[in-house]
Amino acid sequence: MPSFNPPLRTLMGPGPSDVHPRVLAAMARPTIGHLDPAFVGLMDDIKALLRQAFKTRNEVTFPISGPGSVGMEACFVNLVEPGDTVIVCRNGVFGGRMKENVERAGGVAIVVDDPWTRAVDPQRLEDALETNPQARLVAFVMAETSTGALSDASTLVQIAHRHGALAIVDAVTALGGVPLDVDGWDIDAIYSGTQKCLSCPPGLSPVSFGARALDKLRARKTPVQSWFLDLNLVLGYWSGAARRSYHHTAPINALYGLHEALLMLHEEGLEAAWARHALHHRALRAGLEAMDLRLAGADGERLPQLNVVGIPDGVDDARVRQTLLDDYDLEIGAGLGEFAGKAWRIGLMGQSASRRHVLACLTALGSAMAAQGRPSDCGAALAAAQKVYAA
């Protein structure tokens, strides 16, 4: 059996995104022990860089070993005790996963549903909290990867606090791609992933916990149900060198990669990264509309880094995606849940948010649809995108 050599793909799905050669090179550096003093220094640097990315001074800001789903579970198993009432705002697949986490932790989930593609409605959250005054936690997805919807995290957190509840925020697709201000918005607990707008391989989940969340953790009457994700134990591992205790063997080379990705974000600047994602989203949208394709959702509620595109009648979803992969080495995502077979998810995340990616995607998508007899004016699409870049 030969060594595995992956094909060279252009990644424009819902994640992972393209990884910069600097990050790949960093991950290829020599492995050192997880108790090595040099590694402890790296851990401190990563925490500092993550605080910059999240815009927070929270000391408890670090990457959990595991993908974004592990960061989600860490928030819920640490902050939800059996019997706790949690308001879960659900406007897509990942809000549904929040509900499952609440219930597996022994909590009672009160679900507030919003239409797919729409942002979470602040008034519906307000009404739910008034109806359920015993609720002490609110959970919502800021950037819903399944629908491309962007919710107003600042407003939703304010509503939660006004009713005496803490807020858990899913920022898996948000971090690095759209404005996010943990301290300015007073977010209590937040989690993300490395494989989206940070353009790092999957396998780590940055999290941050504020003072109120830590107070709730310390006041627990029952043990955290997960040993691996118990912050009381994990924090000993991510503390300073003098207080550091062994918990698990960290994914050392993956952390090299995260450090390099965060350095690149720092060099670019948060505001510049947000603006870059917005620019390429506008260009992609202009090109898609020139091919008579429409983005789901409402103006002001769309994620720039995750674009949900309606599939025209008569076009075979799976066949188009396979053509893109076979003929162009280009990956876009299928629809999830209610959108399965009805929409494509086109990611413009991190290194995949570039003019080259936008123009290549428009060309390939137009050609793939034309092969199925659906006329698509690729020239008009490229001209429309270029007009955005020239503005």
Task: Walk me through what this model shows.
Substrate binds at residue 345. One of its GO terms (molecular function) is alanine-glyoxylate transaminase activity. Its cofactor is pyridoxal 5'-phosphate. Residues 31-335 form the Aminotransferase class V domain. The structure is a single chain. The model has no long low-confidence stretch (mean pLDDT 96). The protein has two domains: 20-266, Aspartate Aminotransferase, domain 2 (3-Layer(aba) Sandwich), CATH 3.40.640; 269-390, Aspartate Aminotransferase, domain 1 (Alpha-Beta Complex). The protein has helices spanning 21-27, 37-54, 68-79, 93-104, 122-131, 153-162, 211-218, 231-237, 252-268, 270-290, 317-328, 355-370, 378-390, and strands at 10-11, 60-65, 85-90, 108-113, 137-141, 143-144, 149-150, 166-170, 189-191, 204-209, 306-310, 330-331, 333-334, 343-347. It has 391 residues and is α/β, with parallel strands linked by helices. The radius of gyration is 21 Å and the shape is globular. The longest helix is centred in the last third of the chain and has 21 residues, at 270-290. The N and C termini lie far apart (53 Å).
